[in-house]
Write a structure and sequence with these properties.
The chain is mainly beta and about 425 residues long. It has helices spanning about 10-20, 20-25; strands at about 35-40, 55, 60-65, 75-80, 90-95, 110, 115-120, 130-135, 145-150, 155-160, 165, 170-175, 180, 185-195, 195-205, 215, 220, 225-230, 245-250, 255-265, 270-275, 280, 285-290, 305-310, 315-325, 340, 345-350, 360-365, 375-380, 390, 395, 405, 410, 415-420. The strands form 9 sheets. Strands 16, 17, 18, 19 and 20 form a 5-stranded antiparallel sheet that branches. Strands 21, 22, 23, 24 and 25 form a 5-stranded antiparallel sheet that branches. The longest helix has 11 residues, at about 10-20.
């Protein structure tokens, strides 16, 4: 049930649209940054990286692979540690079997204050509908997995494929792409620790239509409200499926969560089908991406957009597209965005950017007075040179401004890579 990149027919249309990049690419001279492959996966240690990365306090990177590993090929949690000579050493912390322990982690992992890792698997668990899991470090570099919740479908969620977030009390929140009867269009859930166990509570079930359908991960604002996006629903546009929404969930005095739809996308130049969670800047503006829309390129699908929602004094939000992709600079952004200290935005596109249409890493600089956001393509992927292909996850920055990410494919064995981009 997880959201895959474009199918073969759409990819063929996209490749026809992107071959015309040549003049722009060749006249641009050197790239604005240098890319380095930190690790190429070989199936035994994982394959197919949809997830973003996270740093620990020592500069080690952690992430997941959707398939591969030493179990039944149902994915892994891995660590990358910097070594001498600028190299990195990979260690598989856990290989999923696809049974009761879960299988196929789509999203990345997060830390708690004690150094434990938490994440989700899209499949596996007691009902084969996905899990929330915890990995606890032990002596000798071992990690022990505990399943905190197995999704049951029905009124419960199913197929969690979004990142988790903690609140200040240590509760976990996330979203499922399906489940939540009677609609089955996804949920937002909360997991609360109760002694040694965790209790799940579905705090919103999406109904489709103007409410939205198929949600992604949620983020907190400074008041404790949750914000997220849905891939469909919100209006009757986009073949009557709806082009997606941005929503807010607020906890009321009775302990229930009330949903408010902040924006309903309308397709076309406004974009459609957001594919990941949102990010706040320091002024309280929200930013996200849409996989399609924004123009007539990419075979008429539109090559995708970056959008901003700004709060209005007295209530409400203003929404506008701050950038539209045209395939030469990338197409189909599938991920959330990252923000640096100067409030520049960074992201990936799964396609476009080169003759092979294998994806890009881009930077968007905020406008000066009266100006527009300015895009720079930091890297165009080329798997023929041992590079990755199809970066589908959001990026993470270190303290020096170096950028890290993953790709679905490419690398020495075509199973994906972890990369670093040095400005």
């Amino acid at each position: 049930m997880h959201r895959k990149p474009l199918g073969n027919s759409a990819r063929a249309i996209l490749s026809l649209a992107t071959w015309i990049y040549v003049l722009l690419t060749l006249t641009s001279g050197a790239f604005a940054a240098t890319e380095k492959v930190l690790h190429s996966f070989d199936l035994n240690d994982g394959a197919e990286l949809y997830s973003s990365l996270i740093f620990d306090a020592h500069g080690n990177l952690y992430g997941t692979t959707f398939t591969g590993g030493s179990g039944q090929g149902q994915g892994t949690v891995f660590e990358l540690s910097p070594a001498s000579g600028g190299n990195w050493t990979e260690t598989v912390l856990y290989s999923f079997t696809g049974g009761s322990d879960g299988g196929n982690p789509f999203a990345g992992v997060i830390f708690d204050s004690h150094g434990n890792l938490y994440g989700t698997t899209e499949y596996g668990g007691t009902n084969s509908l996905g899990t929330v899991f915890k990995l606890t470090p032990g002596s000798g570099g071992t990690w022990t997995e505990t399943v905190l919740h197995s999704f049951a479908g029905g009124t419960d969620g199913q197929y969690p494929d979004s990142p988790l977030v903690f609140d200040s009390a240590g509760n976990l929140y996330g979203a499922t792409f399906g489940g939540g009867s009677p609609s089955g269009l996804g949920t937002v859930f909360k997991l609360r620790p109760v002694g040694e166990n965790w209790k799940e509570n579905v705090i919103h079930r999406f109904k489709g239509g103007r409410d939205g359908a198929y949600p992604f991960g949620v983020v907190f604002d400074t008041t404790g409200a949750l914000y997220g996006a849905t891939e469909q629903g919100g209006s009757s546009a986009c073949q009557n499926l709806g082009c997606g929404t941005v929503f807010k969930l607020t906890l009321d005095a009775n302990g229930t969560w009330a949903e408010q739809v902040l924006h309903r996308l309308e397709g076309g130049s406004g974009g459609e089908a957001p594919q990941d969670s949102l990010i706040f800047d320091t002024a309280g503006n929200l930013y996200g991406t849409t996989e399609f829309g924004g123009g007539s390129g990419c075979g008429g699908l539109g090559c995708g957009t970056v959008f901003e929602l700004s709060p209005v004094s007295g209530g409400g939000w203003n929404a506008h597209v701050i950038f539209r992709f045209d395939s030469t600079d990338g197409a189909q952004p599938f991920s959330a965005l990252a923000l640096d200290a100067a409030e520049n935005l960074y992201g990936t596109t799964g396609h476009g950017g080169s003759r092979c249409g294998c994806g890009t890493v881009f930077e968007l600089k905020p406008p000066t007075t009266g100006g527009n956001w300015r895009e720079t393509v930091l890297h165009r992927f080329n798997p023929k040179q041992g590079d990755g292909s199809e970066p589908l996850a959001n990026l993470v920055l270190d303290a020096e401004g170096n950028i890290y990410g993953t790709t679905l494919g490419g690398g020495a064995d075509e199973f994906g890579i972890v990369f670093e981009i040095i400005p």
